[in-house]
Amino acid sequence: MANYPAQVKIVEVGARDGLQNESSVSTDAKIALVNALAEAGLKHIEAGAFVSPKWVPQMADSSDVIQGFVRRDGVEISALTPNLKGAELALANQVDEFAIFTAASEAFTQKNINCSIEESIERFRPVVELAQKNNIKVRGYVSCVVGCPYQGEVEPEQVLSVCKQLLALGCYEISLGDTIGVGTANQVKQLLTLLLSHIPAERLAVHFHDTYGQALVNIHTALEMGIATIDSAVAGLGGCPYAKGASGNVATEDVVYLLQGLGIDSGIDLERLAKAGWQICEALDKAPVSKVSLALKNSCQS
């Protein structure tokens, strides 16, 4: 019998990691999305990114989106803060949590943010210092934990090294990202076996992309190993930038349905969640990627 966690925390990344990989959508549609997600029971919502609008124009209105969010008890809003300027803007917008990101692949870090892994972590020092002064939590993302579009396979030992550095820096939680979605259950098991021998399960989260259709299988593997935090995006928002036409983030609806089937509490109303996804997909003029969302939509129409 698998030792599943009794409760799972879902970190909803659709409004940031999802929408930054989609075509532009109005600020009002984004505000409606984050509010609908909170109404569906999501307690951890990544609402934007304080990055250069020149590089990520889809996130230029993050301040407006966060200001438009109706604050609710127990709901935390986070934002990506890649540098001190971004962190200061996030602080001014009363964000509850900062998110910083690096990768387990040197090739990816060089291509993506033009520096080494070590340099990328050093850049976050002032961000973490600002957070600590203001009692703000910092979450660390590690990209390419299984494979990299430039170097291929990534060794678990390299992932462990980066996780340890981020924890030492002051991150309370590390989100393990299979950025190109190449991971399989065996690879996930191998990686988590190593990490869990050094890092407590409550300090790790999983962030699987569904490029090869393996995300739910990989999440199930992580749950069996005691991981109780999962990143996902409503309606499966956000394609994979490294695989043309491929789906990106695993859909929150699919994850909630999986959890329900396993008898694990997520505190999320699946019907309301699906409706939030339909609404943003309508604004984007696209269909949800989520199989569960599509099934619910078809049953409503039949």
How do the helices and strands line up, and which of them pair or pack?
Elements: E1 9-12, H1 14-18, H2 27-39, E2 44-49, H3 62-67, E3 76-80, H4 84-92, E4 97-103, H5 106-113, H6 117-123, H7 125-133, E5 137-143, E6 147-148, E7 152-153, H8 156-169, E8 173-178, H9 185-196, E9 204-208, H10 215-224, E10 229-232, H11 252-262, H12 270-284, H13 291-301
Helix pairs in contact: 2-12, 4-7, 8-9, 9-10, 12-13
In short:
The protein has helices at about 15-20, 25-40, 60-65, 85-90, 105-115, 115-125, 125-135, 155-170, 185-195, 215-225, 250-260, 270-285, 290-300; strands at about 10, 45-50, 75-80, 95-105, 135-145, 145-150, 150-155, 175-180, 205-210, 230. It is of the alpha/beta class and about 300 residues long. Strand 6 and strand 7 form a beta hairpin.
What keywords describe this structure?
302 residues, alpha/beta, TIM Barrel, eight-stranded parallel beta sheet, two-stranded antiparallel ribbon, 13 helices, 10 strands, globular, hydroxymethylglutaryl-CoA lyase, metal-binding, PYR_CT, Aldolase_TIM
